[in-house]
Amino acid sequence: MKLRNRVAANIRDIRSTKALNQEAAARIAHVDRAHVGKIENARHAASLATLEGIANALDVDPTKLFGPRECEKVLAKRDDPNFRPSQSGQATTTTAKQREETCGNGRFHLSGCGGARTHPR
């Protein structure tokens, strides 16, 4: 993901989470609302001063605007060879010992859990 797109998405996500509309965020950041919209849509590159103003308006550290988004973190975990989704849908990471103890039906279990007999098929 290009940095401009990442910053745009982070601004949009944070602003939405804080229940601010573009107009309110722009007013607090002392920039035009249309400019905020173009930054959020990655149509305009913003200066560092503008990004700092937007970060202050959103009450976040400016570095938060450059960090990976939550969906990117999930994708990075998915590419980890130790990553396995659990039955509950939560992401988990297995250890080498757990991988060695994989049940015949493909589910992981810990030592002493009863193995494949205790897992639903």
Describe the structure in brief:
The chain has 121 residues and is mainly alpha-helical.
Protein traits:
45% helix, 2 strands, 5% strand, 6 helices, disordered C terminus, 121 residues, two-stranded antiparallel sheet, 434 Repressor (Amino-terminal Domain), mainly alpha
Molecular structure report:
By secondary structure, the chain is mainly α. The protein folds into two domains: 3-65, 434 Repressor (Amino-terminal Domain); 80-118, no CATH class. It is 45% helix and 5% strand. It has helices at residues 3-17, 22-29, 33-40, 48-57, 70-78, 96-100; strands at 83-85, 91-93. Strands 1-2 form a two-stranded antiparallel ribbon.
Kindly state the mean pLDDT as a whole number? 76
Distance between the termini: 40 Å
The counted number of beta strands is: 2
- Give start-end ranges of low-pLDDT stretches: 96-105, 107-121
Helix share of residues? Answer: 40-55%
- Count of separate structural domains: 2
CATH class of the largest domain: Mainly Alpha
